[in-house]
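Much of the work behind modern protein science is quiet bookkeeping, done one molecule at a time. Below is the pair of lines this work produces for a single protein:

***
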Amino acid sequence: MFDLDAEIIPGVSAAGITLGQPIAPVLRFRQPDAIEQRIGVRVLKYGAVWLFEPDGEGVVSQVCIFAGYRGKVSGSIGIGSRICEIEAAFGSLEHIMGNEYQIDRGTPWLNNDWCFTLEKGSPSIGEPGWGEARIDCICT
């Protein structure tokens, strides 16, 4: 059911899963490796693909992808891409919180199409080595 080579289309889809699609067919096809209940959302973890289902809605609200996923955003940015590659392709970045970043579009982070996290121990924006830091998760 999951296509680990599918293009990541920000705000639309990743892994062959479209945002807003019903979660039931996914669960009939395959049970998750783990389920994490967070405030207001259930996270269904399938290895390199995590699906977020808001409580009681029965639909996918977010798809996050991790190591092992080979699809890209715009054919060039994926897991393991460096910050300098993202900035060259999309422009400056904005810090959301913790280790999460997004393309700086001047909009609140909840209205942005995609965000990503960096490998643990990566420098923050402007610190030495920032441009070489690598993505370890992309969410849309």
